[in-house]
């Protein structure tokens, strides 16, 4: 499916064969990226997929046009969108569209893999000005259904 998935499969197989570890790909967090201009990075569920799975969904979004680093770079096209479980605040999915979106999404891959909440991401200090600080802003502005 993806080169990075195949690489991870190989690592897991090595650990199983060489180290006799029990392994599974069940529930594995698999990101993807499209190297267009702007780049697209994605991990987890989309908003619609989360709704289809029965989640009450919270959404956080931060446009690059409202952040310092994208303005300084002249790369204001794009955004970060977070999809959360409105009941638990757990991150379910994320999209980063814009300058370095395929790189920036890795913070969210880790957050989802570790079961982080939007509040935890929002409470994590991000360097200013950077592109990933848009993640922090999106997490701090998650809107939950009333």
Structure notes:
- The chain has helices at residues 3-19, 47-52, 68-73, 101-113, 118-122, 133-140, and strands at residues 32-34, 39-44, 57-63, 78-85, 91-98.
- With 146 residues, it is of the alpha+beta class.
- Strands 1-2-5-4-3 form a five-stranded antiparallel sheet.
- The protein starts with a helix and ends in a 6-residue tail after the last helix.
- The mean pLDDT is 92.
How do you describe this structure in short?
By secondary structure, this protein is α+β, with helices and mostly antiparallel strands. The protein is built from six helices and five strands, in the order H-E-E-H-E-H-E-E-H-H-H.
Task: Give structural attributes.
146 residues; alpha+beta; five-stranded antiparallel beta sheet; 6 helices; 5 strands; 38% helix; globular
Main beta sheet strand tally, sense and closure: 5 strands, antiparallel
Number of strands: 5
How would you state the average pLDDT, rounded? 92
- The topology string of helices and strands comes to HEEHEHEEHHH
Strand residue content: 15-25%
Helix fraction by DSSP (H/I, runs of at least 4): 25-40%
Shape annotation? globular
Structural class: alpha+beta
Number of helices: 6
